[in-house]
Specification:
single chain, 126 residues, alpha+beta, Sufe protein. Chain: A, three-stranded antiparallel β-sheet, 48% helix
């Protein structure tokens, strides 16, 4: 198995940030109806719009679970505005793991949900 496969497998079997935050102030859900993958994210965001903590619950394929675990590692400390401006292509690059074209929707489910949470927070606070 190559190093990328090992990283994905590790994040699938031992996801980081698993569980919703008790002190989170944003909650969002998203679903990939094509395969049935579902994810819920909770974020703790400070008054400056910076993500302080991240948690998730979800069920789905190895790619969707592993990628949201990897996204969690990458978004803590980021500004919500930066997340909102990020494209799907940039999000895939953030994972630093090659994703085949047929698995892009699975890999982006967590990012889509994080972006949805950021949008909710922004609309609630404007």
């Amino acid at each position: 198995m190559d190093i990328y496969g090992e990283i994905l497998l590790d994040h699938f079997k031992n996801p980081r940030h698993l569980g919703l935050l008790k002190d989170g102030n944003i909650l969002a859900e998203d679903l990939n109806p094509m395969c049935g993958d579902k994810v819920t994210v909770s974020l703790k965001v400070d008054d400056h719009g910076i993500i302080q903590n991240f948690g998730f619950l979800g069920n789905g394929c190895a790619i969707s679970v592993a990628s949201i675990s990897l996204f969690g590692d990458k978004i803590i400390g980021q500004k919500l505005d930066d997340i909102l401006q990020m494209s799907g292509e940039e999000a895939i690059k953030l994972l630093e793991i090659p994703i085949s074209p047929g698995r892009v929707k699975c890999a982006l489910l967590g990012f889509s949900c994080i972006k949805k949470a950021a949008t909710l927070h922004k609309s609630k606070n404007n």
